[in-house]
Design brief:
Elements: E1 5-12, H1 16-27, E2 33-36, E3 41-43, H2 48-52, E4 62-64, H3 65-68, E5 74-76, E6 80-84, E7 89-92, E8 97-105, E9 110-111, H4 119-123, E10 128-130, H5 134-146, E11 150-156, H6 168-180, E12 187-193, H7 202-214, E13 218-221, E14 224-229, E15 234-239, E16 242-247, E17 250-254, E18 257-258, H8 261-265, E19 292-294, H9 307-326, E20 337-342, E21 348-353, H10 373-389
Parallel strand pairs: 1-2, 1-8, 2-5, 8-19, 10-17, 11-12, 11-17, 12-13
Antiparallel strand pairs: 3-4, 6-7, 7-8, 9-18, 14-15, 15-16, 20-21
Bound molecules: flavin-adenine dinucleotide.
Length: 397
């Protein structure tokens, strides 16, 4: 009888994290790398914000998964249903079992519609939408660009939302559109943000509030969206000043996210990790199982999850897998993350910070935290090419 298939490094999830890491490991000389990924199409998710802002299409962000699997990497087109870390074994939905020497868990996170009663039903109507799921991202711009009067509410959760401040992109792209059309006086814009800050960098938080004020946007921070009633187009929020109810003509949501249920079901979460993969935020090694690693949106890295963060996390995991085997010193991830926010249809600012909210600019000159035209062009047109040609090919150090 055949035993289970074994791989030296087995990676769960072929998204940004999984493909970048697989390619990096191959570059570093690892001979046996396999990726488990059920989807036939790979998506460059940051482009969804531009789809929601009417500046891109879904075709712009999709490529066949087969085209991004690095040469020499085995692809299992399957979904993981459970992991047995004690036996170093992974169960696939089709019933196959794989074993590993080291396992990297990076299946991302998914929208937690249950967290806001009524939100999912609302998003299926023409008055509410989100950029955090591909098809509604297209509908977001149809909804926002079609609004000529009334109230537009933008609600951004801080519960595990990937790169949450980019929820401000559709807001400012729409506000600038409404200004150009002479509609700003006819539209009341409400911004409801669960976090105390718009972004975890003090200077950019201050600047974005000033930009919001320039559009006449009412900003409430520390405000939690509790429920949505699509039938009456109203929503309930809890703010530091007390509960409130808002009527909306257009509602944009950056909704709470959760980890896949099998992470906790496999004993890989911790009592405090809310179902997310419990790793040491610095070494990215699992807190209980030294041959299990995690990065990306599923991992408890004590930092804003983002693609930018992965540029730093991928080399750390690649190095530390080898270091565990040789006894070399491990590298650490400092919590670097990014928030690129369009401030109009012409300009974007890039906030870069560590897990303590300290600025961590990639370059001092020019000042990337100041809104610039060149930054918007880079984020919309150049960065996707960097993603396909460099990041997914493991060209990170
Ligand atoms: C709307 C939006 C805008 C964003 N904008 C930006 C931005 O401007 N800048 C930035 O830096 N970041 C941005 N991000 C964040 C960035 O896209 C994520 O942080 C990044 O994609 C995380 O990579 P990941 O590999 O952890 O997860 P993902 O990229 O989500 O990949 C996870 C993969 O795992 C697979 N998977 C799921 N379940 C299983 C299973 N059971 N078995 C096997 N495979 C499985 C999925 O199919 C998927 O392919 C944005 C995200 C969104 C949603």
């Amino acid at each position: 009888m055949n035993g289970p298939l074994h791989h030296d490094v087995l990676i769960v999830g072929g998204g940004n994290a999984g493909i970048s890491l697989a390619a990096k490991l191959r570059r570093d000389g690892c001979r046996d790398v396999a990726v488990i990924e059920p989807k036939a199409v790979h998506e460059y998710r940051p482009m969804l914000s531009y789809v929601a802002g009417g500046m891109a299409t879904l075709e712009d962000l999709r490529r066949p998964q087969a085209d991004v699997i690095p040469p020499g990497v085995r692809w299992y087109r399957d979904a993981v249903s459970g992991i047995d870390p004690e036996r170093s074994a992974v169960q696939l939905a089709t019933g196959t079992e794989l074993t590993f020497t080291d396992l990297v868990v990076c299946p991302g996170s998914q929208v937690d519609w249950d967290a806001i009663p009524g939100a999912q039903a609302a998003v299926s109507t023409v008055r509410a939408s989100t950029s955090y799921v591909p098809e509604p991202a297209v509908d977001t711009w149809t909804m926002l660009s079609g609004l000529v009067a009334g109230t537009a509410v933008f609600a951004i959760s801080d519960r595990h939302v990937p790169c949450a401040p980019v929820g401000l992109k559709p807001l400012f792209l729409a506000a600038d559109h409404w200004r150009a059309k002479g509609l700003l006086d006819a539209i009341t814009i409400e911004l409801v943000v669960e976090s105390d800050r718009l972004v975890d960098l003090e200077r950019s938080d201050h600047d974005l509030r000033a930009i919001a004020a320039g559009y006449g946007i009412r900003v409430r921070t520390g405000a939690v969206l509790e429920s949505v009633d699509a039938a009456s187009s109203t929503l309930r929020i809890r703010t530091p000043a007390g509960p409130d109810e808002l009527r909306y003509d257009a509602l944009y949501l950056a909704p709470p996210h959760r980890a896949p249920g099998w992470v906790a079901g496999s004993g890989l979460a911790s009592p405090t990790s809310e179902g997310f993969l419990a790793v040491d935020p610095r070494t990215l090694q699992h807190v209980d199982h030294p041959t299990v690693w995690g990065l990306g949106d599923v991992a408890t890295v004590d930092a804003l999850p983002s693609g930018g963060a992965l540029r730093k996390q991928v080399p750390v995991v690649a190095h530390n897998i080898a270091a565990r085997r040789t006894g070399a010193t491990m590298r650490t991830y400092d919590g670097y993350s990014i928030a690129p926010v369009t401030t109009s249809r012409r300009e974007l600012l890039l906030a870069e910070f560590d897990r303590d909210g300290r600025p961590e600019p990639t370059m001092r000159v020019p000042d990337l935290a100041r809104p610039r035209r060149s930054l918007l062009v880079f984020d919309r047109y150049v960065e996707p090419q960097v993603y396909w040609r460099r990041l997914l090919r493991g060209k990170v150090s």
